[in-house]
Amino acid sequence: MLGRTAVTRGSLSVADEVGLYLELYRRMVLIRQFEDLVNALFLQGQVHGTTHLYSGQEAVAVGVTSVLDPADRVAGTYRGHGHALALGLDPQRLLDELLGRETGICAGRAGSMNVVDLEHGLMGCFGIVGGSIAAATGAGLALRGTGNVAVAFFGDGATNQGYFFECLNFAKVMNLPVVYVCENNGYGEYTPFTAVTAGSIIARPLAMEIPSQTLDGNDLWVVRAAARQAVETARRGDGPSFIEALTYRFVGHSRSDPGKYRPEGERPARGWSPPAGRGASRPRVGGREHCRGRAHGAGSGSSKGTGRAVP
Ligand SMILES: Cc1ncc(C[n+]2csc(CCOP(=O)(O)OP(=O)(O)O)c2C)c(N)n1
Ligand SMILES: [Mg+2]
Questions:
Q1: What residues make up the domain containing 143?
Q2: Which of 4, 110, 118, 236 has CA atoms 20 to 30 A from the CA of 85?
Q3: Between these two residues, 308 and 251, which has the higher pLDDT value?
Q4: Which of 189, 197, 247 to mutate to test the pocket of ligand 1 (most atoms within 8 A of CB)?
Q5: What's the 155 CA to ligand 2 centre distance in angstroms?
Q6: Apex 50 CA angle, 64 and 128, nearest 5
Q7: Which CATH number fits the domain that encloses residue 96?
Q8: Ligand 1 mean position to 207 CA, how many Å?
Q9: How many Å lie between the centroid of ligand 1 and the Cα of residue 76?
Q10: How many domains is the chain built from?
């Protein structure tokens, strides 16, 4: 949360900037390590339901959320661990949620796909493709005139949903403070988006005269600059903006998908990777937690959170 407030307004000293850079980088590493851990736990059968990992797309969520204020609202996708951690949710409580524990962010009831945490501005993560678009548009209506904004994260596949067009049209006509962030990772499940998408994605908001840009979603600073511009536009009362962030998921769509439908060599050429090493402390897995359903955890560590995700 601090990271969200400290960086948007006023001029920064060099020390502040170094602190900011490190903090944003730390969040990206945290997301990657969190997802690696979730994947391992999922394969051990410890995670309820399914999971969709955010690995590779970190710069999008971290860049966009870095320019938000606490009273702004964010709607994420089922690939929402990344959105949640970027907003500063406690990784331990998020992991507890995935493991069905009462100590989870939603008391173990939301699982991987439907986390809500209004304290950090997270209105919800949506399992329905494009659900985040409708939720953020509604939030934008409620926030109109307040100086706060609503952000929708969604995938390339969601741009072929009916309410993508309805919501963008509504937001433009009603001049709503919404920032639409399309995470174009090149695939909807196992299908290249080019096989199911007529024309370009960016042409769609542009046809509605919504300020729009396509950018390198692997570049944190490019994402952050575009998000700042879009958020300032919305705060001024000048309506919605659209960002198409080109990114790449380093893992399969969900569960045990090995991603074999993707051509050889595609992955290393694109996507963001942290260097080797441990950039963030990992949440603990073990413990005798209060669980919903079956028991989880292999070790004897505490079930308590490790504290705030961000300083
Ligand atoms: C309304 C709806 N239709 C279909 C699905 C099944 N489904 C889950 S993920 C997915 C692909 C979405 O792709 P994209 O929007 O590009 O997001 P990504 O998974 O690539 O992040 C589909 C079709 C769903 N969850 N909701
Ligand atoms: Mg996609």
A1: 2-9+17-269
A2: 236
A3: 251
A4: 189
A5: 5
A6: 55
A7: 3.40.50.970
A8: 24
A9: 13
A10: 1
